UniProtKB/TrEMBL annotation, chain B:
GO terms for cellular component: plasma membrane. GO terms for molecular function: dipeptide transmembrane transporter activity. Keywords: Cell membrane, Membrane, Transmembrane, Transmembrane helix, Transport. This is ABC transporter permease. It comes from Streptomyces dioscori.
Amino acid sequence: MPREEPTTADTTAGASADTTADVAAADTPGTSAAGALDDPAADTAGMTAAGTAETAASGTATGAGRAPHRANWWRMLGRDRAAAVAAVVLSLVVLVAVFGRLVIGDRAQRQDLDASLRPPSLGDGVYGLFGTDVLGRSVLARLVDAAATTLSVAVPAVLCSLLIGSALGLWAGYHGGRRESVALRVADVILSFPSLLIAVVVLYVFSPSALNIVLILAVARIPVYLRTARAEAAELRSRLFVDAARTFGTPARHIIHRHILPIALPTLLTVATLDFCFVMLTESSLSFLGIGIQPPDVSWGLMVAQGRQYLQTAWWITVLPGLAIVFTTVSATVLAAWVRMATDPAQRWRLTLPTKRRGASAAVPPELIP
Amino acid sequence: MIPFLRKRMISSAIPLFCVVLGVFFLARMTGNPVDLYLPLSATAEQRAEFSAAQGFDLSIPAQLWNYLVDAAHLDFGTSLRTGQPATEMVLDAFPVTLQLAGVTMLLAITGALLVGSLAAYRPNSLVDRIASLLSMTAASIPDFWFAIMGVLVFGVSLGWLPTSGTLGGPEIWILPVATLLIRPFGVLVQVVRGSMVTALSAPYVKIARSKGATPQRVIFGHALRNAVTPVLTVAGDLAVGLVNGAVIVETIFGWPGIGKLMIDSILQRDFAVLQAAVLLTAVTIFALNILVDVCHALTDPRVRLAVPA
């Protein structure tokens, strides 16, 4: 992928040469699969750099070297309507998750059998806005409570796997050799299992608590970051500035921290944003199946499961939490695409244009997959 | 090809062995495996009898040896729920899931190749933007919710499709396959689009176009074969992820597949069946990974040349 330095024909050639080398050098099948997975990203980078070399050169020259001004970020976000809406939705979800419980108090658990299964209406006050469930609990209050639970599982899980996976991947990619192939092989083994299957088996043996769910999801997703970080570090380790640092006797951990991490970070953060969707969806699935979040706690997936038996009479109990999941994950996906473009110096210029004139944007990376 | 296959099988035998060992040790990590195998309501006599019958009173190495020998004979014990051999139950359930997953992947790959190529042919056109938005949404909808909404709209309100079950004509396939389909389709459209954009900007495509080749010939004759490598990799990983979807779909629609079998064994604490199901799934997934690598070698000469070295 194009880096902070100005994009030149040299780096383009270098990137495609690396790609070819990657395929050709894949002597073990394990690395062949991983190498192939990394390919689209490298290919796309080569393509964009080649296709927009002239325009990008001017754009990068001004953007390179110094961090973009903060106001630019807001302006770029404002230019992209979809990303702006996504950002607003996500901030709203985060605000509700952080402060919601203070506002609703114990309303999410307060039962009122007289008010059982009331449809959404404007007449019943704020808490009746989205109707009530079979025990007369306010669906709105439960949605707010569930937002906090859902995020308190998804965010720590994503952070854990991001930190551990990136650290291992950068280390393996920078050093190469045996360390690299062992790390990749372990990642392949973990990734070749459906995450739900791992979760199901482990939650069978251990109790399904929130902490266990966080740990399982974190372990299941570490390989995604490991692969991405390794690919980035492996490409960067042969760059001139890394060679220079090495020549001056900089220890490996400083090179990784100062010279490789800053360049790999935008990609890793994008993957983390996409992964947030995946972790959220897995947690909802587990809760839906009855082996995730346990009552009296409530998560969006659990609400869907609880409302399922009243589907014919009370659609709102099932439909609303599902919509909450969809809005959050779609927003995260849209924002991830934007962040990827905004943090890539060779593509950032596109965001200053109206959507119609932007031309072909890069593809969503295959890390989206489970 | 043969040395490649041999090498690939040996290299996947090691992780597979790790899985077999992992299941054994997982069953012993939490203490007495009898707790794990028997339902919570078992009496003390039942526990003692079961412990002796299953050889849980032997030493750990002896137990491990027995376990490995049994596993090599595909004997994973009998189900506590039905008394049937676990292997038999798993093999009965397996074809259902395989059919479901096979139909889904076939539709997902064909559909994604068409839609993705169409979107990539004119980047940033209206078609492209609609395809991108739809595929992003499809990839982020929770499948269980999609299934329930499908039942609510088409099963309950409109009455067009059955709400669950496996009896009936082809219409019983529609909702389960659609539920399984959304995520792989959404992801694959984005991957196809991305790699087709790359392939279509290559010099050989410009030459083909300037020679006057039709758009169909340019897309399907020239660009697609070069763009298909990442699509295959991702499709392989998505097929692994289909097991996640199968658990959900089979639970909601009541299909007697391996996903439902796993969830039922968990909820009713039937470890022998769970173990057999997990191992069979693992074997299938490793076979699938080999298949993906073979397809890579068939479509990309660079991979084919690199492997035997």
